[in-house]
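Bit of a strange request maybe. I'm writing a small parser for structure token strings and I need a real example to test against, not something I typed by hand. Could someone generate the tokens for this chain?
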Amino acid sequence: MDNKFFKNLENKTGVNMNDVFQLANSLQGANFKDEKTVRNVIKRVSQIANKPVSKQMEDKIVKSIVNGDEKLDFNTISKMMNKK
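Reply from user aminoacidic:
Good idea to test on real output. This should exercise your parser:
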């Protein structure tokens, strides 16, 4: 993929692709059964997406991921954050 693709994606979403790539790199080898790790990922995704996550929603996401009910990826977290 070329830079134009990522620039268009940034313009449409408002999400900086460099931040996304840095987060993705930091996740390699991370232990997603560790609650602290999962909370840190959720907070970072929330910052990157500029979308606050309530403590209640964070707890729900953490429980779901740590228990293995959901896999940890941007799509899963995004869907959970968008539920009212």
